[in-house]
């Protein structure tokens, strides 16, 4: 079966250089934010930014700690703190991650992206069958391509069909690039979850190479880094350990 839109990934040395540049800038940012936190330890925005920087560097437990500090300072944000759920997932705190995404569902019962992350967490915490049975239910419409992507996790559609539908859709190229970003990202993450590493690397590389993701704003930028981190973990697992 052919993989729609999949191309060869760039040389590992090129990707490693790009990651090294990003990590160097993030290290500098972390140092700056740490100094600012010492001056104003009650500022949740500083913990938010540093938590993101820790996550983007692959320091997942430190990211969770900063997000937890945000909640300690402002308990009202606990329900909606989806970034904490993703950080918990990568810190291998799978049950805690699942609870965070369940909590978010009470805040926003439309966002299927949250339901996908809850599926990932349940898969790791309780296994494939339990994750499949426990998929969150949605009755309201969501932004594309998530309604179709969610059907992937329900076992009702293939990656090829999702990507072909995006190519055929009557949309402008910016919207197509956006939908492709999310499609490649979540198809790649699903392939990684199931241990299909070669497929995962190819899909995730397409997500990382996407022009829309890294510059589209807060949430998409966070997810672009998530794809980059997952790709890094797949490419150099021994180094990451």
Descriptive report:
There is one protein chain. The protein is mainly alpha-helical. The chain has 13 helices and no strands. Helix 2 runs antiparallel to helix 3. It is globular, with a radius of gyration of 18 Å. It starts with 11 loop residues before the first helix and ends with a helix.
Distinctive features:
disordered N terminus; mainly alpha; 241 residues; single chain; globular
Short account of what is shown:
This protein has 241 residues and is an all-alpha fold.
Structural class: mainly alpha
| Poorly predicted regions | 1-8
Radius of gyration of CA atoms, rounded to a whole number: 18 Å
One letter per element, helices H and strands E, the order comes to HHHHHHHHHHHHH
Distance between the termini: 33 Å
The overall pLDDT average reads 93
**Percent range of helical residues:** over 70%
What is the percentage of strand-forming residues? under 5%
Q: Biggest sheet, open or closed, and with what strands and sense?
A: none
Shape: globular
What is the tally of helical segments?
13
- Let me know the number of strands: 0
Fold blueprint:
Elements: H1 12-39, H2 44-56, H3 60-73, H4 82-90, H5 94-107, H6 112-126, H7 128-133, H8 146-153, H9 159-168, H10 173-193, H11 197-209, H12 218-235, H13 237-240
